[in-house]
Amino acid sequence: MQPAALIFDLDGTLLDSAPDIHAVSNAVLEQYGYAPLSFEQVRSFIGHGVPHLVDCLIKASGADPEHGLAERMIPDFNRIYEEAVTLTVPFPGVHAALETLRAAGHPLAICTNKPMGPTRSTLGHFGLTPLFDTVIGGDSLPTRKPDPAPLRQALADLGGGPALYIGDSEVDAETAQRAALPFVLFTEGYRKTPVETLPHARAFSDFAALPGIVAGWPWDAR
Hints:
Blueprint (H helix, E strand, L loop, with lengths): L4 E4 L6 E2 L1 H14 L7 H5 L6 H11 L8 H13 L7 E2 L3 H10 L4 E4 L4 H10 L8 E3 L12 H9 L5 E5 L2 H10 L3 E4 L15 E3 L5 H6 L7
Parallel strand pairs: 1-4, 1-6, 4-5, 6-7, 7-8
Antiparallel strand pairs: 2-3
C-alpha cells in the first residue's frame, strides 16, 4: 500500500500561534480606538479564519459592526499578521515528526484557515516550507474549513489516494468528517470541547507519538 498522504492544520496543530494572534488583535483594536481583549478571549476566536476572528473582535469590543468596520479592519489585521512570528513557536517535536514522516514516504500538506501570506511567512520562518508538497490557506479558495473543499483540494494537489487529516479543533474534526477522511486529533491545541466529544480516529498529545500512529494505519485492519 502506498504511504498515506498526511494533511495538517497549522495554528494549534503544528504551531502555537495564539500569543501572536492575540498581540495582532490588540494592536488592531488599539489602532481603531478600542480596549484590548484578554488572551483567553482571543484564543477562543481562533479557527474559522481572519474574517470570523475580526467579527468576533468587533462584537467583543462592543463596536458598531455597521459602516464597513470589518472590511476596514481585515486588511490592517492581515498586514500586521503577515509579520507576526515573534511569539509563535512550533509545538515540541513537530520538526522531528514531520521529517520522520516525510522520510517514510508520506506526502505532506497544509490545510489551514490562516491566510496564505502569514502562512507562508510563518512556515518559512521556522524552516518548514520544504517539508510540504502543497499548502492551502484560508484565502486559497472561495470557501474555508469546515467546508471540505480546501481539504479536498489539498488531497488533489498531492495526487489523491489514501490520506489522513491531522488537526486540533472542532473545525478540523467537522472538516475531516465532511471530506470523509480519517481524523487524527492533536489534543494540546485550541479545541474548546472535551476530546471525547470530537469525532476522531486517533488522538495524541505528543508529536513523538504521531509517526507510530501513522505507521499503524489502516487501524481497522489490525
